[in-house]
């Protein structure tokens, strides 16, 4: 079995184990809380596990382990178990971020299923409870996200407690804390741009959209998981810096691909409605580039329709056509390619383990050429 596949299985096992440990504690408080546990388990089941993979290969890249996950029989099984647990913590943190993100975006679906706040809303509505079902859904999902955030900390601490090198444990915790801060403020910058763009000078819109990509996604999706993995392996400053030089441009390319999928992705594959980012009013680099290329009338129409929750299929198709015909899609594809080249170049002479470097190159294609 490929190492990455084995890691994904181990991460899922560790998450399931953690949930099983928490279930008696939670249900002892009140049996109704089983609903919260069920929704948490659903969110934490499956997914691409990119953050876990980057964490593991960051650890391998600094020479900390062996490319062998069979039965946790690496030379230092305790440290490998710590890496698996820390990787699991990243996935739980990601789930928390998705819950909160879907609330802020008023998204109805996630991975082809109702978003957490919509699931809680349906519980209220189906039971015929008093009060507002939508309000109950939002409040409940906020608390679920908070619970997952706390659990991600618990998992990380559990992993770090078993790590043999205490300096490595402290450095890993510092990176996790940095990641948590960056993605939270990056999320704020995202909603800030959605609401304040019209008051900004035109020349600032693209740089501000790029800043959102860096802090909301690129660092937290790729760069920081790599850095956390490297710190778990007690990597040198040069090794951590090399992984950052690789991770940031790759993270930018990853998010640019996500932005394209948010407008043009196949709903049957992405699990999100067609053109969902258009209804949510995302002021992405794609939109910023389209605005610079569209005729004034078309640009004003884009500004008027973007963020309208009631956009119908015909309006979505019209906006997709305008964005594509503007040349913005082709330009974003070029920017993706440039960032991938930059990431690959950063690995070429990096002081990293050769086998891990090869795996990271494969992940480069996986995260930037995906269709979901």
Explain what you see.
The protein starts with a helix and ends with a helix. Residues 67-75 have low confidence and may be disordered. It has a two-stranded antiparallel sheet with strand order 1-2. Helices cover 77% and strands 1% of the residues. It is mostly helical and 372 residues long. A hairpin with a 2-residue loop joins strand 1 and strand 2. It is built from 16 helices and 2 strands.
CATH architecture: Orthogonal Bundle
What is the share of helical residues? Answer: over 70%
Number of helices: 16
The domain count comes to: 1
CATH class: Mainly Alpha
Largest sheet, in brief, is: 2 strands, antiparallel
The Rg value, from CA coordinates, equals: 21 Å
Strand order of the largest sheet: 1-2
Oligomeric form: single chain
From the N-terminal CA to the C-terminal CA, the straight-line distance is: 24 Å
Q: Assess the beta-strand content as a share of residues.
A: under 5%
CATH superfamily: Farnesyl Diphosphate Synthase
The whole-number mean of residue pLDDT values reads 94
| SSE arrangement, N to C | HHHHEEHHHHHHHHHHHH
The stretches of 5 or more residues where confidence is low (pLDDT under 50) are 67-75
């Amino acid at each position: 079995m490929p190492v990455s596949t084995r890691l994904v299985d181990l991460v899922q096992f560790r998450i399931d184990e953690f949930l099983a440990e928490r279930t008696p504690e939670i249900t002892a408080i009140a049996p109704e809380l089983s609903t919260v546990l069920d929704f948490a388990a659903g969110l934490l089941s499956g997914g691409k596990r990119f953050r876990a993979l980057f964490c593991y290969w960051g650890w391998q890249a600094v020479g900390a382990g062996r490319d062998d996950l069979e039965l946790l029989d690496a030379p230092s099984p305790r440290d490998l178990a710590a890496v698996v647990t820390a990787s699991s913590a990243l996935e739980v943190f990601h789930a928390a971020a998705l819950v909160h993100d879907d609330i802020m975006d008023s998204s109805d679906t996630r991975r082809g299923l109702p978003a957490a706040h919509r699931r809680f809303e349906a519980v209220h509505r189906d039971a015929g409870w008093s009060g507002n079902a939508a309000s109950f859904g939002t409040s409940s999902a906020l608390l679920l996200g908070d619970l997952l955030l706390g659990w991600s900390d618990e998992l990380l601490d559990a992993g770090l407690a078993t790590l043999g090198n205490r300096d490595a444990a402290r450095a890993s915790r510092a990176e996790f804390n940095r990641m948590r801060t960056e993605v939270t403020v990056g999320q704020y910058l995202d909603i800030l741009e959605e609401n304040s763009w019209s008051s900004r000078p035109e020349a600032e819109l693209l740089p501000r959209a790029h800043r959102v990509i860096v802090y909301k996604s690129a660092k937290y999706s790729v760069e920081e998981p790599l850095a956390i993995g490297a710190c778990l392996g007690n990597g040198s400053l040069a090794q951590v810096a090399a992984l950052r030089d690789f991770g940031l441009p790759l993270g930018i390319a990853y998010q640019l691909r996500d932005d394209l999928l948010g407008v043009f992705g196949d709903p049957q594959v992405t699990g999100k409605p067609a053109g969902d980012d258009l209804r949510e009013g995302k002021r992405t680099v794609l939109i910023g580039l389209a605005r610079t290329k569209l005729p004034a009338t078309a640009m004003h129409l884009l500004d008027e329709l973007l963020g309208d929750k009631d956009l119908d299929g015909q309006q979505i198709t019209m906006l997709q056509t305008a964005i594509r015909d503007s040349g913005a899609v082709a330009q974003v594809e070029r920017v993706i390619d440039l960032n991938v080249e930059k990431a690959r170049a950063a690995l070429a002479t990096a002081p990293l383990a050769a086998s891990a470097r090869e795996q990271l190159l494969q992940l480069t294609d996986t995260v930037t050429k995906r269709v979901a």
